[in-house]
Amino acid sequence: MAIAEELQYKTVSEQRKALLNKEISAKELVDIAYKRIEETDGKIDAFNSLTKELAYDTAKKVDEKIRNGEELPLLAGIPLALKDNICSKGDLTTSSSKILADFRPPYDATVVKKLKENLVPIIGKTNLDEFAMGSSTENSATKITKNPWDLNKVPGGSSGGSGACVCACQTTVSLGSDTGGSIRLPGSFCGVIGMKPTYGRVSRYGLMAFASSLDQIGPFGRCVEDAAITLQMIAGHDERDSTSINQPVPNYAANLDSGMKGKKIGVITELMSEGVDSDVKKNIEKAIDVYKNLGTEIVEISMPHSKYAIATYYILATAEASSNLARYDGVKYGYRAKEADNLLDMYMKTREEGFGEEVKRRIMLGTYALSSGYYDAYYKKAQQVRALIKQDYDKAFEKADVLLSPTCPTTAFEIGSKVSDPLSMYIMDICTITANLAGVPGISIPCGFDKGGMPVGLQLLAPILGEEKLFQTAYAFEKVTDFNKIPKI
Ligand code: GLN
Questions:
Q1: Which helix (H) or strand (E) holds 423?
Q2: Backbone phi, then psi, for 346, in 5-degree steps?
Q3: Total Cβ atoms within 10 A of residue 295
Q4: End-to-end alpha carbon distance in the chain
Q5: pTM value?
Q6: pLDDT for 144
Q7: Burial class (CB in 10 A: 0-12, 13-18, 19+), 212
Q8: Residue 135: CB within 6 Å of ligand 1?
Q9: What is the pLDDT of residue 423?
Q10: Rg of the chain (C-alpha set)
Q11: Which class in CATH covers the domain with range 2-255?
Q12: What is the pLDDT of residue 422?
């Protein structure tokens, strides 16, 4: 078991090598994931449910292939966790909401179909803010996930379970969804890699919709290569998602080591000024120096419309949410209120009892923004500002290959410290949401620690379909630094 104990902390390539050399079987890799979950999840609460049958069935197929000397897909046999808003056939998929507490989808999301085809053992479903609305995972109806670096702190959100489980080495990689920062923020707070692809790069079919023009599925890993390999497995065109991009998927992991000489990085001025913790700022400045030493040219970039980003996002995202969540009415699936006088009463009671406070707040805000008389003043205006934010990006990428900022103005905060003040929670998204509004890809990588020992995240952003460039820039930093640490739990 000595090898196995160590392997759980290792990367995809190291685990794959051990599988191919028959030092460990896929079944044993799944065993150690579950053992680790048993030992640590009582403290972390990353998982809503486990999918043991599925994981062991897949591992069996991998072991058969290895025995027969057949070729193994890149991520075959590597333990992966799914955010609990991604549908997998027959498994509980709850979006951490009471309204879907017993819901088992009759179909697989496209990403899940791809993972199954590539023989990736799905270990379980991870906790999130209800319907992915939040920045701390405290809006979950099931449990509060803790940050493995400090159990009194939040893991970030909304994909907090997916960030925490990779950080705590319960699984090697995981998938989350990012509508306004929900992969990058937990990546930053947990000190792991969190990556949001270009809008449309990964199919959204089977992802429970929050804000359809912003939602995107993406990977978590403990190193850049692991995130790159995982994205490779799930990216690509899908005729079931009309917004998915019909472009070939590059081999992200094969071209990571391209160097930084002659490249230009733009530092976003507005995201390095007031409001950013001094500890965070210091670490980001050191990261900029690392890039300078790698021969990168650093330029200052202004994104003048980013000051409207939070207001714009919270109109558009809530408007889309109010429409998307209309489907939860207690009729065809999900929770239904027990005692109702008539159909309308049943709808109302079901939604009153089934949704949590934040979800209701969003539905009300969104319905208001879409209602006649306010549509032009709010929704239409927000769409116009969205176009201006996109233009900021277009102009920025004329001057730089990649943009850089903190992922979040702060490191992970105490559980409970922001729940009574939604606005203070919304502000956490200030650095991440413009990427969703513009559709560009972004990544958060660990770049240091604050005085209290909590990880600091560095955000890099690339133009539409610039994933390769993004991974290469992240990899160049990772290669010469040593911030991908694993906390003791
Ligand atoms: N924190 C943001 C929100 O609450 C983003 C969430 C997300 O990306 N899913 O809407």
A1: helix 422-426
A2: -65, -45
A3: 12
A4: 20
A5: 0.97
A6: 98
A7: middle
A8: yes
A9: 86
A10: 21
A11: alpha beta
A12: 87
Please state, in angstroms and rounded to a whole number, the distance separating the CA atoms of residues 452 and 198. Answer: 34
pLDDT along the chain (489 residues), means of 10: 76 97 97 97 98 98 97 97 98 98 98 98 98 98 98 98 98 98 98 98 98 98 98 98 97 92 94 91 98 96 96 97 97 93 96 98 96 91 98 98 98 95 89 98 98 98 98 98 95
For residues 166 and 44, give the distance between their C-alpha atoms in angstroms, rounded to a whole number.
Answer: 11
Spatial distance between the Cα atoms of 115 and 75, rounded to a whole number of angstroms: 8
* pLDDT value for 283: 98
d(CA 88, CA 228) in angstroms, rounded, equals 22
Cα 458 to averaged position of ligand 1 atoms, centre (Å): 18
Q: How many CB atoms lie within 10 A of CB 105?
A: 19
Examine the residue annotation and report whether 158 is marked as an active-site residue of this protein: yes
* Torsion angle of the four alpha carbons 224, 254, 173, 280, in this order, in degrees rounded to the nearest 10: 10
Domain boundaries defined on the chain:
2-255
Q: Do 173 and 227 contact (CB within 8 A), yes or no?
A: yes
- Within 370-453, strands assigned E span 402-406, 442-449
Give yes or no for residue 45 CB within 6 A of ligand 1: no
Q: Determine the 3-state secondary structure of 50 from DSSP.
A: strand
Pocket flag, ligand 1, residue 182 (CB < 6 Å): yes
